[in-house]
Q: What sequence folds into this?
């Protein structure tokens, strides 16, 4: 059994490229409850990084720290240091709105706005002060999300008229329309059927040419298909019985799935628990 | 066989035909609800028919010209509804002009997390209490407190903007504008409560989606949350308009019951419901019939507002 407060050594040898996001000794609290404990983890540029692990292990919580979406929960608090391009994301001088313009997010349930397909894309661009050719941006973003051919004749229709898989690709399109550097995906395929899931996964392979992607997933096959690096999180009961999540192991995806260093990882990826 | 197991020796038809109390109650329940539903429709028809039949002499006498006449003369039995129709519509619209921005603003404030819940809940409760104040109390408060309080301000507006037609008379102590302000206070709780509910019930995913794209709170509210709650907000405005159109007691006490159409909002005016309340006691013959004609007009007006609300709400729901 790992001692979760020690730094997993695998972090170092997993990462050799440019680091976009560095997570140093990060713990996340909701009020007095500690949800995530002492995570060290570096996200390299233009890679897909998957967070896997059982429910309640804090992987979504950690993901939401990267674009400061946990700020929406008044009791949430982040200890430790998360840097993006060397700048502390939680520095008081940093505006969370600016963070979210550079680090976009795709959510678990497709959440298009109750607006037309066109306006769904244009919204993010407008609030980011985009001054260029909007028609061109909408087309480029929809092509980038492999949705253009299906919707090009009905851009004025409501985004909610699309199927679940199309809605999720619309949400990806509206995220890439704001040209973020990093895209966070919180179980983006959990509400989709297998065919839509494969389309979104194909899309991730294309997107990593331009973006860094962090994806939280419950689906281990998905992690092994899309991710270059995989972090395995687990939950453990701490003092007083409340469960906290921690990073067990972070390495190249093939190592995590074929030759993990930790027994817990081995048990999880081979389906023995979780 | 133990007594607790059900015997299936009868055929399906035999057991279906057998007397069975729960089944009977089920039938009675069904027909009872049908009867209740039908009775509501019958009451509406009954009221409409009574209005029509009692108003009929006036309708036959004055025809459609009733809507455009400013005369109300019981001595010569000549009647017209124009001042009341005008006063009803204008007082309601002016009330909405004040109540919509204030009400939607308060609803947005209460639906956001600007204040801790411990403070928000009592505020929301107090606002809903505004709706519980009887309208005669609003009328008394208007006469003795509110109108004296705002009159100096209205004088100042008259002094500066008296050249504008709607401020072109000396503010009277009984007048349309002050009535409209009291009406605005009366309809505020309706707008606030329903708008807030529809804002609060917008899916949290929408807010997260907008924040996740780098939208500020203002952008999220104005471009995502308020548009997606719009059907509820418009519904609340229409309900409030319905209340303002039909409000009787406060209007009768404050508006001055003048039978003239004046462009100035500071002049006394009249509303349909105020006229009916003032005159119904001593009216008979053609005058009573004319009052019923006015009531019919008011009912048609509120009916139109309700239908319009349905249309607008449906249209916005289709967009969603």
A:
């Amino acid at each position: 059994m790992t001692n979760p407060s020690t730094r997993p050594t695998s972090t170092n040898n997993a990462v050799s490229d440019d680091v976009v996001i560095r997570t140093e000794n990060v713990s996340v609290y909701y009020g007095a409850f500690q949800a995530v404990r002492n995570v060290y983890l570096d996200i390299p540029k233009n890679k897909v990084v998957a967070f896997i692990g059982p429910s309640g292990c804090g992987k979504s919580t950690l993901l939401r720290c990267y674009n400061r979406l946990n700020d929406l929960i008044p009791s949430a608090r982040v200890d430790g240091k998360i840097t993006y391009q060397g700048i502390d994301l939680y520095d008081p001088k940093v505006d969370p709105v600016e963070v979210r313009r550079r680090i976009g997010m795709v959510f678990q349930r497709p959440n298009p706005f109750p607006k037309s397909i066109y306006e769904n894309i244009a919204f993010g661009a407008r609030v980011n002060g985009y001054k260029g050719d909007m028609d061109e941006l909408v087309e480029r973003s929809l092509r980038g999300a492999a949705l253009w051919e299906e919707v090009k004749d009905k851009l004025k229709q409501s985004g909610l008229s699309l199927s679940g898989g199309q809605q999720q690709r619309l949400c990806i399109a509206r995220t890439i329309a704001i040209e973020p550097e990093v895209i966070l995906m919180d179980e983006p395929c959990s509400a989709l059927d297998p065919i839509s899931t494969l389309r979104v996964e194909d899309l991730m392979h294309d997107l990593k040419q331009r973006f860094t992607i962090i994806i939280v997933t419950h689906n281990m096959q998905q992690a092994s298909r899309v991710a270059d690096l995989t972090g395995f999180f687990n939950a453990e009961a701490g003092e007083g019985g409340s469960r906290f999540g921690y990073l067990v192991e972070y390495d190249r995806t093939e190592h995590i799935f074929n030759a993990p260093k930790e027994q817990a990882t081995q048990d999880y990826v081979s389906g023995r628990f979780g | 066989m133990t007594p607790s197991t059900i015997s299936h020796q009868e055929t399906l038809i035999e057991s279906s035909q057998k007397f069975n109390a729960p089944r009977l109650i089920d039938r009675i329940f069904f027909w009872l609800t049908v009867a209740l539903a039908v009775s509501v429709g019958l009451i509406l028809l009954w009221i409409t028919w009574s209005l029509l039949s009692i108003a009929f002499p006036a309708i036959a006498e004055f025809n459609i010209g009733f809507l455009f006449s400013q005369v109300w003369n019981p001595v010569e039995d000549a009647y017209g509804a124009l001042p009341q129709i005008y006063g009803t519509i204008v007082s309601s619209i002016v009330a909405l002009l004040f109540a919509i921005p204030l009400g939607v603003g308060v609803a947005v404030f209460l639906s956001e997390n600007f204040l801790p819940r411990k403070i928000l809940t009592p505020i929301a409760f107090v606002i809903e209490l505004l709706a519980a104040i009887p309208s005669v109390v609003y009328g008394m408060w208007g006469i003795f407190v509110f109108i004296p309080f705002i009159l100096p301000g209205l004088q100042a507006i008259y002094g500066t903007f008296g050249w504008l037609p709607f401020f072109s008379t000396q503010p009277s102590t009984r007048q349309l504008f002050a009535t409209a302000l009291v009406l605005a206070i009366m309809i505020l709780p309706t707008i606030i409560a329903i708008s807030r509910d529809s804002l609060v019930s917008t899916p949290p995913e929408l807010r997260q989606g907008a924040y996740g794209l780098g939208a500020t709170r203002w952008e999220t509210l104005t471009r995502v949350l308020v548009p997606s709650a719009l059907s509820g907000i418009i519904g609340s405005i229409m309900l409030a308009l319905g209340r303002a159109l039909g409000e009787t007691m406060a209007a009768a006490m404050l508006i001055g019951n003048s039978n003239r159409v004046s462009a100035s909002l500071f002049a006394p005016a009249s509303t349909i419901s105020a006229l009916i309340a003032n005159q119904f006691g001593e009216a008979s013959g053609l005058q009573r019939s004319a009052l019923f004609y006015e009531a019919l007009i008011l009912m048609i007006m509120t009916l139109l507002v309700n239908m319009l609300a349905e249309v607008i709400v449906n249209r916005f729901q289709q967009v969603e």
